Amino acid sequence: xxxxxxxxxxxxxxxxxxxxxxxxxxxxxxxxxxxxxxxxxxxxxxxxxxxxxxxxxxxxxxxxxxxxxxxxxxxxxxxxxxxxxxxxxxxxxxxxxxxxxxxxxxxxxxxxxxxxxxxxxxxxxxxxxxxxxxxxxxxxxxxxxxxxxxxxxxxxxxxxxxxxxxxxxxxxxxxxxxxxxxxxxxxxxxxxxxxxxxxxxxxxx
Length: 205
Known about the structure:
The chain is an alpha/beta fold. The protein has 5 helices and 6 strands, in the order E-H-E-H-H-H-H-E-E-E-E. It has helices spanning 16-27, 51-63, 69-86, 91-104, 111-136; strands at residues 5-8, 35-38, 141-143, 180-184, 187-189, 195-197. A 4-stranded parallel beta sheet has the order 1-2-4-3, with helices on one face. Helix 1 (16-27) links the parallel strand 1 (5-8) and strand 2 (35-38).
C-alpha cells in the first residue's frame, strides 16, 4: 500500500485541543505513512476573522503603505496563544514569522504577487506548529518547506495551476521519506521561486 494523504482544514487546527486530536488521528494511520496537509489555523472564537482574511486585510494595508501593525499583532497573538496552550516555544515559528515580516517590507510589487506570498504564511505557520506537536507527541514527523514541494505553477497569482508537464515533479523529492510529512496546503512556486497560491480551496490539490 502507498502513502495516504490526510488533509486537515482550519476547523481541525483551530485550537490546541483540536490539534492534539489531529495528532491522534494521524497516529492511528502510521502504517500508511501519512502525508499531512494542513490549512491555516482556524477560527476559535465568535466574531473572529479567518487567518487568511486577516492576512488579506494586512496585505492591502501594507501594499497601500498604510499602518498594519495592529493587524500583525492580532495574527501574532493568535499563534502565540495556540503555541502556549500546546506548551510549544515561539521559536517553533520564529523563522516563518521573520520571513513574514520581511515579505511585508517588500510590498512594492504587483499586488496579486505580493498577496500570494502573504497568504502563504497562514499554512506555513500552522504546518510548523503541527509538525512540532507531532514530534513532541513522539510521532516521526517533519515540516516540508515550500521549496521542497516541487509544486511548480504558472504565474497566475491567486489562482495558479500546475502545468501538465510539471505534475510528475510534485513531491518527487519526498517520495522515499519514511517520516510523516506535514505540508502547507494551497501553496506553490513559479519557476523562478516566487510564491503562488492555488486559489481558495487549493489545499485539495
